[in-house]
Write a structure and sequence with these properties.
Blueprint (H helix, E strand, L loop, with lengths): L6 H5 L14 E8 L3 H14 L4 E3 L15 E2 L8 H8 L1 H24 L11 E4 L6 H13 L6 E4 H4 L10 E5 L3 E2 L2 H15 L2 E3 L6 E5 L2 E6 L2 E10 L18 E10 L4 H5 L7 E4 L5 E5 L5 E6 L10 H14 L8 E11 L6 E4 L6 E5 L6 H15 L24 H17 L1
Helix pairs in contact: 2-7, 2-10, 3-4, 4-10
The chain binds flavin-adenine dinucleotide.
Flavin-adenine dinucleotide (FAD) binds next to α2, β12, β16 and α10.
Length: 432
């Protein structure tokens, strides 16, 4: 399928060359399924650091999934577990190790952009978690305390008055400020990593969905419409787009959750002054949070969770919900023309944390994903870690939970019903 239409597709320019659909049968050492950030970064690091020229099989186009459609925030983040909960679940030491790995992820992105000369409109650093309700300021204060006391990180609490310098309008009662984290053009970033991977020796076949997979005698037979790949090792980088039919061993380990984005017309100088004068990354403290920023051409990108099922994803009510949320924050933008609207499926694991693991039941198969909508920097880091696992390091980070393959979701048929009830409860809590 072609890329679905979006602001990113319209402004990315021309895609770098790829290797077209697979034609004929081949034998390879390593095959990677999925050409998003995870798969491309794995291919790049395999070639550059381990001398392995992997073959990437992509069903659609390079970065057709989340990597070409996201909100563009590269932060110290991965998964969606609040810091206090992370500490109580795994202890301070693991929380510190995980924070170090997430920070390494952000540095991996910076390094790729710098060393690979990826022209992806990277913006200056600065991330604000904005209190959308006065009652949330206390919990931001506690969170800043944890960043300082447990992680030794310089997050700052910004008062309601101070935050007005970067976030005007309503629903800004204070903020937690992280000095590290920036936005960029996510499709240009993906295309840049793709170019680097191919320059390093990887092959990337687009239009090559893996439609059948059998394993025997230590090798894997991946069937695509144009040919069969026989591989000794396989990396699964399909994340929120993993079909249950791909392989029994990978099925049901992530829940695809829809996230949606609108992009407005360019703001006037006055609208800009009265809403988002700067280019920092913003997200709020709601349970069903919104994320937003001003783009270099002065439009506002505004995103949040939307539909529960694929059938509902096209409904105009989700676009309207985002527009309503935008005008609640910035009343002067009520009714503003929306020029772009698209969505994608983020992958949530049972623990709401990412994984980079060996897949149980299968020999020499590795998988990475589960970033829960926070994977721009961490997926590139996971790709790098997957390359280490493929080449024989079973535990390339100090963080144990990352290397455990996610449990399957229990009670699969009732999952969407549970999600619907959770969203209704979150909406009630966010409104109160
Ligand atoms: C609307 C939206 C906003 C987001 N905003 C942010 C943000 O601001 N910051 C942040 O950190 N994260 C954000 N994310 C999440 C982030 O984009 C993802 O975590 C990241 O891109 C995941 O990359 P990936 O390579 O693992 O998966 P993907 O980019 O989804 O790639 C998976 C690929 O696998 C391919 N595939 C699937 N099945 C097969 C098969 N059988 N054969 C071959 N190929 C197959 C798909 O076509 C797809 O291209 C957002 C996501 C969405 C959807």
């Amino acid at each position: 399928m072609p890329h679905s239409s979006s602001y990113w597709v319209d402004t990315a320019g021309t895609a770098p060359p790829d290797d077209g659909p697979l034609k004929g049968d081949i034998e390879v050492d390593v095959a990677i399924i999925g050409a998003g950030y995870t798969g491309l970064s794995c291919a790049l690091h395999l070639a550059r650091e381990h001398g392995i020229r992997a073959v990437v099989l992509e069903a659609n186009q390079v970065a057709w999934g989340c990597s070409g459609r996201n909100g563009s925030f590269a932060r110290i983040s991965g998964g969606r577990v609040p810091l206090a909960q992370l500490i109580s679940r795994y202890g301070e030491n693991t929380a510190k190790q995980y924070f170090a790995e997430m920070t390494a992820g952000l540095n991996t992105v910076r390094g790729l952009i710098r060393e690979g000369r990826i022209d992806c409109d990277a913006q200056p650093d600065g991330v604000y978690k904005v209190a959308s309700n006065a009652k949330h300021v206390e919990s931001l204060k506690r969170e800043v305390g944890l960043y300082h006391d447990v992680l030794g990180y310089g997050a700052q609490l910004v008062s309601g008055d101070q935050v007005q310098a970067v976030h005007r309008g309503a629903e800004s009662f204070g903020a937690l400020y992280m000095p590290d984290g920036f936005s960029m053009h996510p499709l240009k970033l993906a295309w840049g990593v793709h170019r680097l991977a191919r320059e390093a020796g990887a092959t990337v076949h687009v239009g090559s969905p893996v439609v059948d997979w059998t394993s025997a005698n230590g090798s894997h037979r991946l069937v695509t419409p144009g040919g069969v790949v026989t591989a000794r090792k396989v990396v699964v980088a399909t994340n929120g787009y993993t079909s249950t039919a791909l392989n029994r061993a990978t099925a049901g380990r992530v829940l695809p959750v829809h996230s949606q984005i609108i992009v407005t017309r360019p703001l006037s100088a006055e609208e800009k002054r009265q809403t988002l004068p700067g280019s920092e990354c913003m997200f709020d403290t709601r349970h069903l949070l919104s994320y937003y920023r001003r783009l270099p051409d002065d439009r506002i990108l505004f995103g949040g969770r939307s539909a529960i099922t694929g059938r509902e994803a096209e409904s105009p009510k989700h676009r309207q919900n985002l527009q309503d949320a935008l005008s609640r924050k910035f009343p002067m933008l009520e009714g503003i023309q929306v020029d772009y609207n698209w969505g994608g499926w983020v992958a949530v694991s049972e623990s709401s944390l990412p994984f980079v693991c060996k897949v149980p039941e299968l020999e020499n198969v590795f998988a990475g994903g589960g970033y829960a909508g926070s994977g721009v920097s961490f997926s590139l880091q996971v790709g790098k870690r997957l390359a280490q696992m493929v080449t024989g390091d079973p535990h390339p980070t100090e963080v144990d939970f990352l290397h455990q393959c996610p449990k399957r979701f229990p009670f699969q048929p009732f999952l969407r019903m549970g999600q619907r009830m959770a969203y209704a409860w979150y909406r009630f809590k966010d409104a109160s």
